[in-house]
Amino acid sequence: MAVAAVLWIRLGNLGDRPLHHDESLDAWFAWRLSTGRTYVYDPAYHGPLRIMLTAGLFKLVGAGDTAARCLAAASGVALVATPGMIRSSLGRVGWIAAAVALAVSPTLVYFSRFGREDLPYALAATVGSLALVEFLREPRAHLAVVGALGLACAAAIKESFAITVLVLVTYLVGLIAIEWRGLRMWRQIPTLRRFGEVGAEPWWWAATAFVTVFVLSYTVLFTDPGGVWRGIWDGPTYWLGQHEVGRGSQPWSYYGVLATAYEWPMLILAAIGTWGAVRRPDRVRLFLVWSAISQFVIYSWAGERFPWLIVHPMVPIAMLAGLGAECTWHWGRLRSVGHRWIAASVLAVAVVWSVGMSVVIAQVRPNDPRELVVAVQTTDDVRGVAAELDRASATGSILIDGSDGGGWPFGWYVRDLPVIGFELSSSTIPLGVSAVVVAEANVPMLGLPPDAGTPFDLRATWLPDYSNRSPGVWWSWFTQRTVWNPVQQVPFRLVLIDPVTGAVIPSR
């Protein structure tokens, strides 16, 4: 029953919400690749592997909103199993609790249903990182290859790979520095000795696996040889350059606000888990602490701040929450019946809150702009407009106004229709056009009557005014989702045209 509930939260009604701007771009690239059109890696749209995997899925089941989100949803489900890789460090209760935390975390559930690269990346980076730190705890040859494969897939999915490598390298350097104290020769350092315990062969296989996945992905199966260099250099440098751009327009405290709003039970248990890791450390436990803290700091420092980036620090936080559950459970188990009830109650509250919030934001109101996890979300109006465009295409061409972001997600929804352009290159509508989607501000430019067509909102989002963030207004939002500054909407209009005469058809 519990497994069925987890699957429903993540997979149920997966295609009901219209595709977000970013989702539609990823889906469009995958559709082009699946239909034999050209696709090459562009750093602005992240790594090619998830485009290739989604294209393969489109070939099997057809292109659609549900299929476009399947890779993220499957990655979210698979992520739940990753605590099993480090169950010796988390404990018998802890690794199961960590799996539950990953399964019901509201932010991880929400973005598991979001057709971007965040969850596939989180899965690959987590598998790669945990395999390597588990290797440090107990060297086994297969962990070297698993770690390399996981990190290779992460590198081929998103440029955040640089941050994952930074976290791993700084952890290793710190561990080696601590172990080196009092030793005369570097060969005596336990961590370095562990790398040699399995011999050279596993590391050759690991290097081969990494290079193979990286090259196959960035060349798109050898169709774009230049993609390798773009993956090595252009991707990291492009995204480092975005730091100064500051996309998202959020303060440095943004992820703290998000985590407090949706994940406060997880944060409490993670704090207990951190205490447990410091009190009884091992190489895996200390890595979880370092990974959670360093990633939270790095993503808070980085100029680009959007809600989906909280996925990266939330994974180690959820695993620390599992360790916190282990500590809480044993604290209760070793004392009186009253202590056991307190421990059980703490864990029950955490699960009930997380499940309830996950259902609300994933199933009940997944595109409500008052939710902080919802950013520049496509409104439900777009589905109806897309259906009208499909009908209108039977008699003529479609013209889409690409200003104010109108090109997406419409580029995805009109992919099979006769579209003549995504920009208004003149002040007249050519004959043969049967429907126009135009930004409200551009209606006069086309000479259309003020009341022509059907108005609709393309997107809606709420950017909190943090200058008014008093405890009272935040409490009103937390309890009632009351916003204190207006929701921002992007108004558009659908105008149906007689393709022969060019006359506007009155809206129904």
What would you say this structure looks like, in words?
- It is built from 20 helices and 6 strands.
- The protein is an alpha/beta fold and 508 residues long.
- The chain has a 6-stranded mixed β-sheet with strand order 1-5-6-4-2-3, covered by helices on one side.
- The chain is globular and about 90 Å long.
- The model has no long low-confidence stretch (mean pLDDT 90).
List keywords for this structure.
508 residues; alpha/beta; six-stranded mixed sheet; 20 helices
Please give the radius of gyration in angstroms.
25 Å
List the helices and strands in order: HHHHHHHHHHHHHHHHHEHEHEEEHE
pLDDT averaged residue by residue: 90
**Tally of DSSP β-strands:** 6
Amino-to-carboxy terminus distance = 47 Å
Strand content: 5-15%
Main β-sheet, spatial strand arrangement: 1-5-6-4-2-3
What is the topology?
Layout: H1 2-11, H2 21-34, H3 49-61, H4 65-79, H5 87-90, H6 92-104, H7 106-112, H8 118-137, H9 141-155, H10 161-180, H11 190-196, H12 201-218, H13 227-241, H14 254-279, H15 283-301, H16 311-333, H17 337-364, E1 377-378, H18 381-392, E2 397-400, H19 410-413, E3 419-421, E4 433-439, E5 454-461, H20 471-480, E6 488-496
Parallel strand pairs: 2-3, 2-4
Antiparallel strand pairs: 1-5, 4-6, 5-6
Quick summary of this structure?
Helix content is 58%, strand content 6%.
